[in-house]
Design brief:
alpha/beta, Spore Coat Polysaccharide Biosynthesis Protein SpsA, Chain A, ten-stranded mixed β-sheet, two-stranded antiparallel ribbon, about 20% strand
Length: about 350
């Protein structure tokens, strides 16, 4: 980290926010890995969404560096992150899943990237899938991309790590499994006291946040030197198209838990309503409609109950999403169409 001449460098303070839901051993492992970080100061806020089991006795052993919030119910990933932000004292905030294991230099590398890229508001590292011996060579996420259909995907997901994602570069978004942001940027896009949109509950709120930050002129960067491991539970098509790989898509959808399909479906529509421009949607309308019709059709045929629940949840969230769109578009700092180059494939 940089320092003023004649003065010692002050290590940045980072607040790590961990939404927790059961999986006590995972929470403890995540906390231990973050507290072992080098080159930074770390405080941790664990928000326990498990109404049936307290983490107080377990986390007390880590001392004052770890604080616990227990809402007494499952508030969802987004609301848990917001609760953590309200307690954050760091100049940077890390949102991370409870099944994340950070390398000792993970946070320091992300903080250093923020210094190298003054316009960066969000950065993320190379996240691998865990295995015996601490990790495998399979990539979990090397940043998040957005297809022309507006389907988000984790770059490199499921690929063998052979150095193809070893370049530090901009990406459209960063996975919420390990999303590192400037606190000032989060405050800038806070809407109604929420950094992450709580109507999402879980899934795709990370893409929504990064999209809003980009509309304010910020940049999102991928930093391969920052390594971590993530035990993902829901997996996608690893960046492959839905129509060309419909068999793999169908098999994957059948394996996903009900709540994953429900929130992914509903949140995709909220995501577009809040952040898209009419001109960009019109240019890609056939591709967007093709993807949505496929997803809706598969959901209706394989799980009509999830289909109905998603439609009802979206209808309830629609008025708030329209209001959020008005506010987001009224304060955007980049012209319409500026993000079109990110919609690829």
């Amino acid at each position: 980290m940089g320092s003023r001449p004649g003065r010692e460098a002050i290590e940045p303070l980072i607040t790590a926010v961990i939404p927790a839901y059961r999986g006590r051993d995972l929470v403890v492992g995540c906390v231990q890995s973050l507290l072992a970080s080098e080159g930074v100061r770390v405080e941790i806020v664990v928000v326990n969404n498990d109404e049936k089991g307290s983490l107080g006795s377990i986390l007390a052993a880590f001392g004052p560096s770890v604080r616990l919030v227990e809402p007494g119910r499952n508030t969802g990933y987004a609301a848990a992150c917001n609760a953590g932000v309200r307690l954050a004292r760091g100049e940077f905030v890390l949102f991370c899943n409870q099944d994340l294991q950070a390398s000792p230099r993970f946070l320091a590398e992300l903080a250093a990237a923020m210094e190298r890229h003054p316009r960066a508001v969000v950065v993320g590292g190379k996240v691998l899938r865990p295995g015996r011996g601490g990790g495998t060579a399979l990539i979990d996420s090397a940043g998040v991309g957005l297809r022309r259909s507006r389907a988000p995907y984790d770059r490199g997901e499921g690929q063998v790590d052979a150095g193809q994602f070893d370049r530090e570069e901009q990406v459209f978004a960063v996975s919420g499994a390990a999303l590192f942001a400037r606190r000032t940027a989060l405050d800038d896009v806070m809407d109604g006291g929420e950094v992450l949109d709580e109507s999402f509950f879980m899934y795709k709120e990370d893409v929504d946040l990064c999209w809003r930050l980009r509309l304010r002129g910020g940049e999102c960067w991928y930093v391969p030197a920052a390594g971590a491991w993530h035990a993902r539970t829901a997996r996608g098509l690893a960046g492959r198209g839905y129509l060309r790989h419909w068999r793999a898509y169908l098999a994957g959808e059948r394996r996903k838990p009900r709540h994953v399909r429900l929130h992914s479906l509903k949140n995709q529509w909220i995501l577009l309503i809040k952040n898209e421009t009419i001109a960009d949607v019109w240019r890609d309308l056939p591709v967007i409609l093709g993807r949505e019709c496929l997803v809706l059709g598969v959901t209706f045929l394989t799980s009509p109950r999830v289909f109905a629940e998603a439609v009802r949840a979206f209808a309830r969230a629609l008025p708030a999403a329209v209001g959020a769109r008005r506010r987001i578009q009224s304060v955007r700092r980049i012209p319409g169409g500026s993000l079109r180059a990110w919609f690829r494939g």
